[in-house]
Amino acid sequence: MPEVIINGAEGRLEGRYSPAKGERRPIVILLHPHPQHGGTMHNKVIYALNQVFIRQGFSTLRFNFRGVGRSQGSFGRGEGELTDAASALDWLQSINPNAGACWIAGFSFGAWIGMQLLMRRPEIDRFVSIAPPANIFDFAFLAPCPSSGLILQGDKDEVVPEESVKKLSEKLGKQRDIEIDYRIIKGANHFFTGKLDKLEANTEDYIETSAEQPAPREREPREKDKPAAKAGAREKEKAAAK
Length: 242
Prior knowledge:
The relative contact order is 0.14. This protein has a single domain, classed as Rossmann fold, CATH 3.40.50. The chain is built from 6 helices and 8 strands. It is of the alpha/beta class. Helix 1 packs parallel to helix 5, helix 2 crosses helix 3 and helix 2 crosses helix 6. The chain has an 8-stranded mixed beta sheet, with helices on both faces. About 35% of the residues lie in helices and about 20% in strands.
C-alpha cells in the first residue's frame, strides 16, 4: 500500500493510498478517531474498514490528521481536521478524476468530521459512520443530511451511549430523499474489541446492497457549494486552521 504525502493547509499530511484496478472505480477516504486520544490512520477500526472497501473494489485513502504521526501541524479543534479531510479528498479526486462514486467513512471523531465534510461536498454519494459521538459533538448541522448512509454502533459502547446514536439516526431517518441504515452490533464496545468481524460483515453487506440500488440522485449544488463559494469557504477554513 503506497505511502503518500498530501499538501495540507498546515503542511504535509501522511497517508496510505490503495488504488483499485480498472476504470471508474469508486473512491473512499477514511477518517480516524480523535488525535488527542491516540487516534491514527492505523486504528484497528479504520484498518478493518479500509480492507472492506479494498475488497469491494474501491480506491482507498486513509491519512493522519495534522500533528499525528508524520503529518505536520498541530491539533485544529475540529476546524483544522475538517480542512485536512477536504485536502485529502481533493488529492484523491485529482488522481481519480473519473471515479464512479465517492464515499466517506469515519470512526468516532472521524465520523463527526466526515459528516461535516459531507455537508460541504455534494459529490459525496454515501457515508459510513462508525460510533458517531452524538453525545459529545453537535450534529445539528445535518439539516438536511444530503446523502444516504450506514451508521454502525455497539450496544456496549462505554464512550458513546447507543441511545444518543439511536436518536441521531432516527432524526436523520425522518428526512426526505435519503435512507439511513442503522445497525447495532451486540456486545461491541467503542473500539469493537472482538467484534471487528461483525463490523466488517455489516459494512460489506451495506456496500453490496447499495451497489444493487439505483445510482444516487444528483444533488443540485447549494449556493455555498458552487465553485466560487466553495473556494471562498476553503480559504476561510485555512484561515481558521492557522
